[in-house]
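Hey, quick one: can you model this chain's 3D structure?
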Amino acid sequence: MQEGESNSSEEKKEEKAELPLKPVRQIEFETSEGTWISLDVSPSGETIVFELLGDLYTIPIQGGDATRITEGMAFDSQPVYSPDGEWIAFISDRAGGENLWICRPDGADARQVTKGKRNDFISPAWAPDSQYVLASKGGRSQDIWMYHIEGGSGVNVTGAARGSQRRDSDGGTPARKLRMGAAMSPDGRFLYYSVKDRASVYNQMAFDWEIYRRDMVTGDEDRITRADFGAIRPLISPDGRFLVYATRLDAETGLRLRDLESGQDRWLKLPVQRDDMESRGSRDLFPGYAFTPDGKELVVTWDGKIWRVEIETGEETQVPFQARIRKDLGPLLNFQRRVEEGPVRSRLIQDPTESPDGKQLAFSAMAKVYIQELPEGEPRRLTESSEPEFKPTWSPDGKSIAYVTWNEQGEGHVWLATAEGGAPPQRLTTVPAFYTDPVFSPDGSRIVSRRGSAWMRSQTPSEFGGLRISLDLVWIPIEGGDARLIVPARGLGSPHFGPEE
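Sure thing. Here's the predicted structure for all 501 residues.
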């Protein structure tokens, strides 16, 4: 291959790596507040860098007009200054996938550090020598990785004990933990981060994040907080004496200050910005915040504003800013579509089941049970009931259909109706509950169904992946009456009878 061909190939690769969405419109407005503002303070103490709507801005430490230093279709976030003030590390998807980038304090010389295509990078932090950047990398499982600013494959810092017999102070296996939000001590000896033992999902109710400390010499990992409602986003003061972290008191998120020399731990500010511990923390569990270089103040965001909080007294001062937003946007996704007129058509058929002779089909549509002659008969309602009807099943002789009802009050029953229709359906169950998957016994004398708590069912509206409630297998006589327990279902699916029965 000729040298010119090689260069051309590299250029094409770079071209393909760019964001495929092209700007076709633009919005402009001014704002003095933002949501989930991650920020940092320059080593000189004169400037704050922060993210706003996918771009990076700077303002004087006293506040003022914001200067945009990155712009475009990419989403840039979580900026942090290098200790020598020469660089800003941030997360960006400008190369087509989310990666770690660095740029000069004015936004110039932007350079991609990592080359991942499918990884999430969260909360960059600098090593004291300004030559390495640390960040949480991963998806459902995460470790803290360290990268040289000149690039390379990086080093998995917290995964070093993977495959070994070493355990942390709580006896846990380091390889099975989520780690996020790195912060290194000024001397580079210790690395602090949030740890959780299992993957993050939405709508969590247990906030078991804690702050851990890793000895960068020995590799030992120790838990240093035991918070009832999580401990996240650690930050070390410039002199290495204080640790600030976010946690909760009841339903409010606040910041606590720990003296690492004495062990004293107190509230610094409560409440502040709401954390993201219920979710997966795609941009960390709390927005980035920073000490001033003298360690006397903490610069942090809440209520859409930027604030300076005195470490000694907790007194707060707002840092006002005014940002002129100019965003390139892709095309509107408001495709024109004609609304159908005439009779309503069902687009979702539930639980279709053939009659024993194969000539009819029973199914539930729009919360009603229908019967249709096969192959192309006109569907007809099985009953005239106003109750929502589901899960039809045929009797062995094909003359009757059993089904269940379930209403918005959380009550359900098992019913029996003649397949020909005309006669009112008969309620078979005496006690309201959540009933599902009814099936006739081979002799037609009983109906077997799964049954569970109606209240528990109402608390689990999603059936994706199966019902997550305890169910029993019960039977009801065909004449109706009390349901009798057969056996706890214990995760078993739809009941059915084999041919030998």
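One thing worth noting: Confidence is low (pLDDT under 50) at residues 1-16, 161-175.
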